[in-house]
Amino acid sequence: MPVTSCRHIIFLTLLTFSVTTALPPIIKIGAIFTQEEKDSSTELAFKYAVYRINRDKTLLPKTTLVYDIQYVPKDDSFHASKKACQQVQEGVQAVFGPSDPLLGAHIHSICDALDIPHLESRLDLDSEYREFSINLHPAQTLLNNAFYDVIDFLNWTRVAIIYEEDYGLIKLRELVRSPGQREVEIHIRQADPESYRSVLKEVKTKEIHNLIVDTRPENMHHFLRGILQLQMNDYKYHYLFTSFDIETFDLEDFKYNFVNMTAFRMVDAEDVNVRRVLEDMQRFQPTGHSPLNKTSVIQAGPALMYDSVLVFAVGLQTLEQSHSLVPANVSCDAEMPWDGGLSLINYINSVELKGLSGPIEFKEGRRIQFKLDLLKLKQHSLVKVGEWSPATGVNISDRAAFFDSGSMNVTLVVITILETPYVMIKEGENTTSQKYEGFCIDLLREIANMVGFEYQIQLVPDGKYGVFDHETGEWNGIVRQLMDKKADLAVGSMTINYARESVIDFTKPFMNLGISILFKVPTDKESRFFTFLDPLAFEIWMLAFVAFVSVCLCLYAISRFSPYEWYNPKPWKGKDDPRLMVNTFSLSNSVWFITGTLLRQGAGLNPKATSTRIVGGIWWFFTLIIISSYTANLAAFLTVERMITPIENAEDLAGQTDISYGTLDSGSTMTFFRDSMIETYKKMWRFMENKKPSVFVPTYEEGIRRVLEGNYAFLMESTMLDYIVQRDCNLTQIGGLLDSKGYGIATPMGSPWRDKISLAILELQEKGEIQMLYDKWWKNPGDTCTRNEKGKESKANALGVDNIGGVFVVLLCGLAIAVIVAIFEFCYNSKKITKLERRVASAPHQSLCAEMLEELCFALRCRGSRQRPALKRQCSKCLPGTTYVPATFDLPPPVNNGLRSQDEKCFREAAWQFP
């Protein structure tokens, strides 16, 4: 073969090789570490990453990575810059590290000036865009969001932030400023190994149980020892560490004390691919050290360093498919940028992969895609309880882990108040947890079994639920005890309101209720003997009596004045003789006529004149209205039971002053009226506040007693009112609910038990357990009173003697009076006859007693002579042999009008004595 042909073949081969191979066979990269990081896990991870990429021929099959590592003092930026320039001059195409923030800023300035990619795995607090920088560490802004989501989930309201390095405050400043629905009280303290104990002691003195800890990993054992020395290692405390390396800490002394420790991690050691890489990494020991710790867990720094090398290799692979990479030939002296640096950094910035630290994605050199595992210390080890990512936020997979007591023997101090039927003392029991019974005790027992804790019940010293005193600026009662952390829970009929919620926490309400009015059942009006007089008022009776007398006199006067009411009963003596004219409506007859018409009876007298007929007609109309109205109202009074309550609602209560009303002292009901902006309730509060003696009562029992005494209304919560009303038929509820609220279990602010108990309450409500407990303590048939409730359609009761007995009394009195008058008339008539007999000389004389006896015998004789004894006796002496003529017939005039014999005169006088 000719020499020329061989040369052509060699040229074509080299040309083909240059076209297909865009990457040089050797690519040199530089790494700068501090002297403290020499032979550290971070350096070993870097070396292993280069080793793995060179071994894996699928990633860069025809390219080998060669690294150059330089060590510099930690605070010496001058030497660091010289080392970087030295690596650039030797042709490195990327620089990795260092992890120190100060040194990293200087190295980046050199790389940016020469267009050399700078890959970092450190926390960068500078938010400005850096063109030639690729940082795999998550931005602090996103990490602060993750921390805040956890704080919000744990419901922290008082937090202490303890940081060590100066930039720690700058790192967490966004966390301090994070807006939220609830304000978080944050205490910030800087500490180092020398001051850990004093700072922790201050936090303990302030009773802050939630801490965010940002310390150097190498000093963490000093901090943990301070926790043990101050005995801040129980379940009340919760520590949130900013470090991603909590798995590398020695937490053996904290596992069994149930202290809450939470942190994020970036490396999921449970992932199959990650575990395979870590196992291979553990076998890679070029210097006799392992990049993993004793627990075979890699730290976040080495993992990020490994991922940064992997990202660079993937960027080279992507660039190889479309561009060629010209080796860098730059120096710090010439300040000529590398032509291929811009293309390489763009390809690296577009890399998307999954490394040891999870999913990786960049935007303008900042990592925007990653996943953090939320770890929680449990009894045996740290467990994963959730995840966080920038896209989805926090996702808690095991909520019970934060409040799960497991098998721990935690005894909570539960504070309460004796109140029927919520908490009562059981007779015959002396143990602390068994001497109480009631609705809340049963509820507490169910919750304790579900959540998993023991409890010890104590009574609040002052016997009050808790109200804020504006004069002293302090709380009292249960609220004060919880604020002072003297109790873990408060169980009872404790109302959830805004003021209490601002200083303590409440669970979900286990019972809904409102304020209502307790009042004594109005007793039926005592039946009086003269109840029939009630339909008409006293004034009407007096006016009717005046009208009766007036009409009687008017009729009498008009009848005598009108000529048409006079008539001659003996027209044969002279038709128009005025001496013979008589008037039917004498005074007695007028009274009788008016009385008869009033009582709907005939009087036997009829007016003849028009004027007297008008008086009669008007009186008849008057009596028609009066009697009809009286009859209708009497039926309403006597046949329909009407319960008349002096008050019907809160407005009626506020509009009067005769009935006192009050609330429980230092309770939520008192606070409701005190702080209400409704005018009616403000008026009621002014009345209650100024009323002397005080209308506020220390206990419900005292309020019930005052209600039963009468003239007092007790404003109380509807659940307790319902319990009382069902057991005492003398009490009733007036009106509806004045507000709407709920009972909840109270805990100190930020207590870890609140959410767990809330979940237990919701579960009990869904199962109907709480309703069953309510029926047990409220509606026990053996303890409730039997009410004879009558609806609006109830039938009227039969009238008894108590209702209309007075009518019979009036009737008896009238009959008695009539008898007395008849006796009087009898005696008077007998005496008159006796006097008449004495004036007649020929008549036989009898004594008054004999005359009365004879008349009485005649009156009692059923059969016999129709002639009265006196008449018979006079006629036999005056006209012997003549026949008796009844007095009701007038005898015809005698023939001789001028002669009037003695016998005729005697006969006529005797005849007119006949009744």
Automatic annotation (TrEMBL):
<dbReference type="InterPro" id="IPR019594">
    <property type="entry name" value="Glu/Gly-bd"/>
</dbReference>
<keyword id="KW-0732">Signal</keyword>
<feature type="transmembrane region" description="Helical">
    <location>
        <begin position="580"/>
        <end position="599"/>
    </location>
</feature>
<dbReference type="GO" id="GO:0015276">
    <property type="term" value="F:ligand-gated monoatomic ion channel activity"/>
</dbReference>
<feature type="binding site">
    <location>
        <position position="495"/>
    </location>
    <ligand>
        <name>L-glutamate</name>
    </ligand>
</feature>
<feature type="domain" description="Ionotropic glutamate receptor L-glutamate and glycine-binding">
    <location>
        <begin position="421"/>
        <end position="484"/>
    </location>
</feature>
<comment type="similarity">
    <text>Belongs to the glutamate-gated ion channel (TC 1.A.10.1) family.</text>
</comment>
<dbReference type="GO" id="GO:0045211">
    <property type="term" value="C:postsynaptic membrane"/>
</dbReference>
<protein>
    <recommendedName>
        <fullName>Glutamate receptor ionotropic, kainate 2-like</fullName>
    </recommendedName>
</protein>
<keyword id="KW-0325">Glycoprotein</keyword>
<dbReference type="InterPro" id="IPR028082">
    <property type="entry name" value="Peripla_BP_I"/>
</dbReference>
<dbReference type="Pfam" id="PF01094">
    <property type="entry name" value="ANF_receptor"/>
</dbReference>
<feature type="transmembrane region" description="Helical">
    <location>
        <begin position="804"/>
        <end position="824"/>
    </location>
</feature>
<keyword id="KW-0472">Membrane</keyword>
<keyword id="KW-0407">Ion channel</keyword>
<feature type="site" description="Interaction with the cone snail toxin Con-ikot-ikot">
    <location>
        <position position="674"/>
    </location>
</feature>
<dbReference type="GO" id="GO:0038023">
    <property type="term" value="F:signaling receptor activity"/>
</dbReference>
<keyword id="KW-0966">Cell projection</keyword>
<feature type="binding site">
    <location>
        <position position="669"/>
    </location>
    <ligand>
        <name>L-glutamate</name>
    </ligand>
</feature>
<dbReference type="InterPro" id="IPR001508">
    <property type="entry name" value="Iono_Glu_rcpt_met"/>
</dbReference>
<feature type="transmembrane region" description="Helical">
    <location>
        <begin position="540"/>
        <end position="559"/>
    </location>
</feature>
<feature type="binding site">
    <location>
        <position position="668"/>
    </location>
    <ligand>
        <name>L-glutamate</name>
    </ligand>
</feature>
<dbReference type="Pfam" id="PF10613">
    <property type="entry name" value="Lig_chan-Glu_bd"/>
</dbReference>
<keyword id="KW-0628">Postsynaptic cell membrane</keyword>
<keyword id="KW-0770">Synapse</keyword>
<feature type="binding site">
    <location>
        <position position="500"/>
    </location>
    <ligand>
        <name>L-glutamate</name>
    </ligand>
</feature>
<feature type="site" description="Crucial to convey clamshell closure to channel opening">
    <location>
        <position position="647"/>
    </location>
</feature>
<keyword id="KW-1133">Transmembrane helix</keyword>
<dbReference type="GO" id="GO:0042734">
    <property type="term" value="C:presynaptic membrane"/>
</dbReference>
<dbReference type="InterPro" id="IPR001828">
    <property type="entry name" value="ANF_lig-bd_rcpt"/>
</dbReference>
<keyword id="KW-1071">Ligand-gated ion channel</keyword>
<keyword id="KW-0675">Receptor</keyword>
<dbReference type="InterPro" id="IPR001320">
    <property type="entry name" value="Iontro_rcpt_C"/>
</dbReference>
<keyword id="KW-0406">Ion transport</keyword>
<feature type="signal peptide">
    <location>
        <begin position="1"/>
        <end position="22"/>
    </location>
</feature>
<keyword id="KW-1015">Disulfide bond</keyword>
<feature type="domain" description="Ionotropic glutamate receptor C-terminal">
    <location>
        <begin position="411"/>
        <end position="780"/>
    </location>
</feature>
<dbReference type="InterPro" id="IPR015683">
    <property type="entry name" value="Ionotropic_Glu_rcpt"/>
</dbReference>
<feature type="disulfide bond">
    <location>
        <begin position="729"/>
        <end position="785"/>
    </location>
</feature>
<dbReference type="Pfam" id="PF00060">
    <property type="entry name" value="Lig_chan"/>
</dbReference>
<keyword id="KW-0813">Transport</keyword>
<feature type="transmembrane region" description="Helical">
    <location>
        <begin position="619"/>
        <end position="640"/>
    </location>
</feature>
